[in-house]
Every structure is written in structure tokens, then in C-alpha cells.
């Protein structure tokens, strides 16, 4: 694939003896939204978390194969995992702001990085909040506790927090599943804006959402990548019967 | 797994079969009226068209409703979007039966130019193509649908031959033959258009089953 940001090749992942990802080979293009769909337990979240090695913390887990990011294997020997996660940000299903002010939530990553320059931090916080389409709603509430924001705002705050450290890739694990339709729409609109600057990979249970927001869609089942294609092809004429049965709700 | 949605799709299919049966009946009656110079039958076809129009609207509404409520994907999506097109094709076929019936009145008081030969042949081709296209849809048979596409050439050839004969052998030689020749020309055109709509239905059937667009491809290659 041209413009591939990530090349995953023969990737296997184990929790103890259980092989939860089986020989996954997939190229993920830069500045595109790649959606990952599949029934519960198909390995889609494990796959997502493999891309910034979030699974490493699970005892007894093990990876095989390669995940090349810009041509370098993120599972290579001397990889700086903290540096990797700076490059590959993540947003979770449930928004998880820190018990701090709106401003400090976004500034958090910068402070951890040892940045002291007040103006630099202010400028970056504003830009991140703007990029997360939240600035106009919180610019007068920067000192408020983040928990005072609505659910949808909290989720966009978490996106702003991820953006503040200027990642190249954004992993989103069901980013809108806990939100109401209006907040969901805002997140989906935001994703379309963000893809201009970032490579986005989104796991979603909501097939219509995958159809709306992603450029490419991958269908996982029982730890295998069943089909991967341009989204409009997956949803109008999938080539595998398994994909067809899943997206038309015949099982799952 | 049988879904509730499957039952609704089944109902949609039944409605399409109903409009198909009405369209086929309209063709049968209109060509019968032509053959037997039966003005009462022709009038009947014209009056019955309102029923077909009403059914077309209700099928369209059903399709839109299914899309809105179920957000269909893959084959379901292809089925419903094609159902909307097939519905329109069938309604147009019924309109052409009305057009043929109107020609019956234009021809009624006039002696025939010559015994009808190619028009009955073209009539048979048109009825066969419509029947096959509907059968292909019912049985979800893309091989049968392909057969319909092949027949379309025969329909075009027959129409051209009818047109040549009427224009060159009659109208060019004797201008006063025009009032009798023109309705026949139009009838040949109506029948050929029916064949085109049957072809479109067959193409939609192939799209539903094979997820492949064959429309316009033959003309391009």
C-alpha cells in the first residue's frame, strides 16, 4: 500500500496460552481513518492496544510478528515505549479526565515532559482544545474542574489531552459509545477534521459509525482479520460471506 | 439466523411481484386489444393504470422506510435500492402498455396497411423478456438474468426492420399511408422500450446477486 503509516505483518498476540490475534497482516494508511469492526471478543481492542504496546502491562502476554511504524518495528529491542506512546496517542471508551482543571488536563503531558515555558504551554493547550473542537465551549472555564464538563465535552477534553503532545497516530477505542447522538455527531465530525493531521484508527461496535467515519474498514473475527477494504466496498459488496453475515446482522 | 428484517424484505418482494403481475397483465391486454381491435379492452388497460401507479408509490415508501429504520448494508442494501429501481421499471412498462392501448384507438377505424408480421414477433420477445426478468428476480437467478440481456439485441433488430419497412415500403411511396403507419411505428417503439426496461430489471437482478454492475458496460466495451 502506498502511504502506509503502519505495516503489521504476521502479528500474533497471546494472553498466556490463548492466542487472541492470529497472523494479522494489514497496512494502515497515513492521514486516513481506519475502522475496525467485529463481534465482542474478536480481538479488535487487543489489536488496537498492540499498536502502542498498551498490552505490555498485562502479565503473561506475548507478541510475535512485526508492527512497523514509519518503517521501524515497535516491538524491536531498543524501542522507547514511552516515546512510542507519545507518538501513538489513545482515547478510550469512557472519558477519563484527571481530577484537575480543564487547562491542567491538557497541559499534563507537557508538564510530564518537563516543559516549563508558560507561554508555550498556554499556546499548546489552546491549539489542542481548538483542534478537539472544544475551545469555544471551555475558553472561559479553563480553571473549572474537568468533571464539571458534560460527557461529550469530557471525551473531547481527553482527545485534546492526547493531541497536546503532538502524536502522529490516534487510537480510538469506542470513543463515542457512551455519548448521546449529539455528542457522538460532534466526535464524528471532529474525526474528519483530525484525519487531516493524524492517522486515526478507530474500534467501534457501531457499524453505521464505521460506515460514516472510516475510509477503510477491517473486519475481525475470532482473532483473525477476515476482510479489509475501502469502507464503501465493505458495506455494499463485501467479498467474504462472513463479513456479509456480520454486517447484515445475521449473527453476533 | 432469521431476522425480523427478513420478513419485511419478504413482504417487499411480494409487493414487487404484485406490481410485476399487473404490468405483465397490462402488456398482455394491450397487445390483445391491438390484435383484436378491442377498444373496450384498450380502455380497460388505460383505466387500470391508476392502480399500478398507486402500488408503485406504496412500494417506494416501503423501501424508504426500510432504509430509514434498518440502515441496511451489503446485500440488503443492494436489494432495497434495486427494488426501488425495479419498481420504477415495472411502472414504466405498464405506462407503455397504456401507450400501446392508445394506439388501438388511432388505428381502430382504418384498414391495416398489411397483415401484421414483425409486430407480433416483437410482442412475443417483449413478453418473454419481461417474464424472464421477473423470474430471474424471483428465483435470484443471475444466469437467467444474463439471458434477458442477450435477447435485447433481437428486440432492437426487430424494431429496426419494422421501422424500415413502414418508412421505406409505405410512407416513402405513399404519403397518405402515414396516418396508418405512424401508430404502428410508435407501437414498435413502445415494445422495444418495454424490452429495454426488462433489460434494466435483469441488470438490477445481477447487481443484487453478484454485486456487479453490468449496466452500460456492453455499450462501452
Q: Which structural category do the helix and sheet elements of chain B fall into?
A: mainly alpha
Structure annotation, total helices of chain A: 10
How does the major sheet of chain B shape up?
A: none
Query: What gyration radius of chain A follows from the Cα positions, in whole Å?
Result: 18 Å
How many distinct beta strands of chain B?
0
In brief:
Chain A has 252 residues and is an alpha/beta fold. In chain A, 36% of the residues lie in helices and 27% in strands. In chain A, helix 7 (181-194) links the parallel strand 7 and strand 8.
Structural account:
The complex is a heterodimer of chains A (252) and B (221). Chain A is α/β, with parallel strands linked by helices and 252 residues long. Chain A has ten helices and ten strands. In chain A, strands 6-7-8-3-9-10 form a six-stranded mixed beta sheet, with helices on both faces. Chain A has a four-stranded antiparallel beta sheet with strand order 2-1-4-5, covered by helices on one side. In chain A, a hairpin with a 2-residue loop joins strand 1 and strand 2. In chain A, helix 3 runs parallel beside helix 6. Chain B is mostly helical and 221 residues long. Chain B has one domain: Up-down Bundle (Methane Monooxygenase Hydroxylase, Chain G, domain 1), CATH 1.20.58.220. Helix content of chain B is 85%, strand content 0%. The model of chain B has no long low-confidence stretch (mean pLDDT 93). The interface between A and B is medium-sized, with 14 and 12 residues.
Amino acid at each position: 500500500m502506498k502511504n502506509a503509516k503502519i505495516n503489521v505483518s504476521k502479528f500474533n498476540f497471546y494472553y498466556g496460552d490463548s492466542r487472541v490475534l492470529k497472523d494479522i497482516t494489514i497496512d494502515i494508511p497515513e492521514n486516513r481513518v481506519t475502522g475496525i469492526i467485529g463481534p465482542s471478543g474478536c480481538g479488535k481492542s487487543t489489536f488496537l492496544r498492540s499498536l502502542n504496546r498498551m498490552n505490555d502491562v498485562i502479565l503473561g502476554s506475548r507478541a510475535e510478528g512485526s508492527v512497523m511504524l514509519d518503517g521501524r518495528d515497535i516491538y524491536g529491542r531498543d524501542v522507547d515505549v514511552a516515546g512510542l506512546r507519545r507518538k501513538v496517542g489513545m482515547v478510550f471508551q469512557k472519558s477519563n479526565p484527571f481530577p484537575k482543571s480543564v487547562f491542567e488536563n491538557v497541559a499534563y503531558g507537557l508538564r510530564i515532559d518537563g516543559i516549563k515555558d508558560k507561554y508555550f504551554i498556554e499556546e499548546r493547550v489552546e491549539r489542542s482544545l481548538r483542534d478537539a473542537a472544544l475551545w469555544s465551549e471551555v475558553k472561559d472555564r479553563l480553571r473549572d474542574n474537568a468533571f464539571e464538563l458534560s460527557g461529550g465535552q469530557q471525551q473531547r477534553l481527553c482527545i485534546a489531552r492526547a493531541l497536546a503532545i503532538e502524536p502522529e497516530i490516534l487510537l480510538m477505542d469506542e470513543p463515542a459509545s457512551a455519548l448521546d447522538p449529539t455528542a457522538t455527531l460532534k466526535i464524528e465530525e471532529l474525526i474528519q477534521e483530525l484525519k487531516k493531521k493524524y492517522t486515526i484508527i478507530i474500534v467501534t461496535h457501531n457499524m453505521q459509525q464505521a460506515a460514516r467515519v472510516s475510509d477503510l474498514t477491517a473486519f475481525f473475527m475470532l482473532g483473525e482479520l477476515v476482510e479489509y477494504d475501502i469502507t464503501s466496498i465493505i458495506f455494499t459488496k463485501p467479498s467474504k460471506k462472513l463479513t456479509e453475515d456480520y454486517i447484515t446482522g445475521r449473527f453476533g | 439466523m432469521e431476522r425480523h428484517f427478513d420478513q419485511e424484505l419478504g413482504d417487499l418482494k411480494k409487493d414487487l411481484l404484485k406490481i410485476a403481475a399487473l404490468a405483465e397483465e397490462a402488456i398482455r391486454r394491450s397487445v390483445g386489444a391491438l390484435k383484436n381491435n378491442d377498444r373496450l379492452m384498450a380502455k380497460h388497460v388505460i383505466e387500470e393504470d391508476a392502480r399500478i401507479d398507486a402500488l408503485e408509490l406504496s412500494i417506494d415508501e416501503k423501501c424508504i422506510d426500510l432504509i430509514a429504520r434498518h440502515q441496511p448494508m451489503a446485500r440488503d442494501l443492494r436489494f432495497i435500492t434495486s427494488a426501488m429501481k425495479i419498481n420504477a421499471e415495472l411502472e414504466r412498462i405498464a405506462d407503455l402498455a397504456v401507450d400501446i392501448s392508445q394506439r388501438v384507438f388511432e388505428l381502430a377505424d382504418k384498414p391495416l396497411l398489411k397483415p401484421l408480421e414483425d409486430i407480433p414477433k416483437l410482442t412475443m420477445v417483449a413478453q418473454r423478456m419481461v417474464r424472464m426478468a421477473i423470474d430471474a428476480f424471483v428465483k435470484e437467478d443471475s444466469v437467467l438474468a444474463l439471458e434477458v440481456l442477450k435477447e435485447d439485441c433481437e428486440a432492437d433488430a426487430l424494431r429496426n426492420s419494422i421501422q424500415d419497412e413502414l418508412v421505406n415500403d409505405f410512407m416513402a411511396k405513399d404519403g397518405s399511408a402515414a396516418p396508418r403507419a405512424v401508430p404502428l411505428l410508435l407501437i414498435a417503439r413502445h415494445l422495444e422500450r418495454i424490452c429495454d426496461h426488462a433489460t434494466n430489471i435483469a441488470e438490477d437482478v445481477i447487481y443484487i446477486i453478484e454485486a456487479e454492475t453490468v449496466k452500460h458496460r456492453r455499450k462501452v466495451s
